[in-house]
Amino acid sequence: MLTHGGDIFGFARRYGAEPLDFSVNVNPFGMPPGAKAALERAATRAGQYPDPLYRRLRQAIGAHEGVPMDQVVCGNGAADLIWRVVLARKPRRALVTAPTFSEYESALMWAGCQVERHALDPRRGFQLGEEVLEDIHPGTEMVFLCNPNNPVGQVVGKELAEEILDRCQARGALLVVDECFLDFLPDAGELTLKGRLADGPGLLILKALTKLYAMAGLRLGYGLSSDRALLEGIRGAGQCWPVSIAAEEAGIAALEDRAFTRKIVELLPKERERMRGSMAGLGLEVFPSQANFLLFHTRIPGYGERLARQGILVRDCGNYPGLGEGYYRVAILTPEKNDRLLAAMETIGRELE
Hints:
Order of helices and strands: HEHHEHEHEEHEHEEHHHEEHEEEH
Helix content: 25-40%
CATH topology of the largest domain: Aspartate Aminotransferase, domain 2
Radius of gyration: 20 Å
Strand order of the largest sheet: 2-8-7-6-5-3-4
CATH architecture of the largest domain: 3-Layer(aba) Sandwich
Mean pLDDT: 94
Number of strands: 13
Strand content: 15-25%
Number of helices: 12
Low-confidence stretches: none
């Protein structure tokens, strides 16, 4: 099973202190203040069972996304919903890109599905192209599309995304679009496939409060679909209480704070491009990204370990299909923290001179 970033506990056991963590792509400003206050209030209700249909949360998500609440399903993070939709549908053949988020293939493989990979070309910056349409065969039953793609950061344009959806619908395949990082982008409204939900079954959009609202530890994700049977299947493919009272209350409060996300969306592009230019200036091969993280490659052996010895944790992407040794991903944090990463990278360069 592929590992993920964020293992600050294992890092602390090995190096004696928690790291400056660039391995997870979470908003660096923390949770919205209102969400923190809601979380504290929720502690007084810890003796109660959560609402198994999380009605208030679905209503809040529906209002936030502009869809009816009966088109919303929630889970213990987006990863939970990935596993649930696979278990609900039990596809025999599915398509993923390579590289992409590992949970798609992990869930599909555990369900006994034949997984086909559409390889992305590093010479094109791992940008998805129209040739992916040729890999959606008559026997393809599920397609996963990550937009922006993790760990690459490249966006799938609206026209191509709609062509992929049209091909999936023509083949009878379910398209699962992971938009967990899309709201970090200023033009998210122009890229989302939400406008196609009304077209009927065949589309599930996944989102999460994990990244944008810095709620990774609370585990809260949601899916959007107009396919009632699919949503019922997802709800039934797991335990009865996928969302805790704490996660529900914090999630509702977070969605109400529109001003909070504006600061993040305004900071991200400028800081990402500053980081990309600085890292390239240090001799690293940094790939184009429109997300809140950067993928880079280096020929320096043990680069992640060298950073770890300076107290910095990055995501080693060597175990991603389609990547390999020397590939790493770093989140875009605050300017001050980013400067610490750049200083550590510069130190590695000086040591090897």
